[in-house]
Amino acid sequence: MPGLLRGVARTAVVAGTATAVSNRVSRRQAGRWAQQEQPTYQAEPAPPAPADDGSSRIAQLKELGELKSQGVLSESEFEAEKARILGS
Asked: What is the distance between the alpha carbons of residues 23 and 30, in angstroms, rounded to a whole number?
C-alpha cells in the first residue's frame, strides 16, 4: 500500500509540474503574439516558484527535460525555466 501511495503522489507531482510548465509556455506564447500585434505591450514576469523539497524540483527538472526533448521548449526557454526552478 505505501508503494501505491508513493506512485500516486509522484504522478500528482509530475502532472502538476507539467501543468505549470504548459501554462507558462502558453502565457509566453500569448505574450509573443501580443507583442507582434501591439509593440507597446509588456508582459508581466511570472511570480517566483514557491520553495519546496528537492524531490519536487527533481520532478520539475525531469518534466522540463521531456518537454525539451519533445521540442516544446527551446534551449533558451529550457535554461530559463531550469534557472527559475533551481533559484539561481
From this structure: 10
Q: How far apart are CA 72 and CA 51, in angstroms?
A: 25
What pLDDT digit, counting tens, does each position of 24-67 carry?
A: 888 888 887 777 766 554 556 666 655 556 678 888 888 888 88
Task: Please state the domain count of the chain.
Answer: 1
Compute the distance between CA of residue 23 and CA of residue 29 in angstroms, rounded to an integer: 10
65 phi/psi in degrees, rounded to 5 = -60, -40
**Side chain identity at residue 32, one-letter code:** R
Domain that holds residue 81: 2-86
Question: pTM of this prediction?
Answer: 0.39
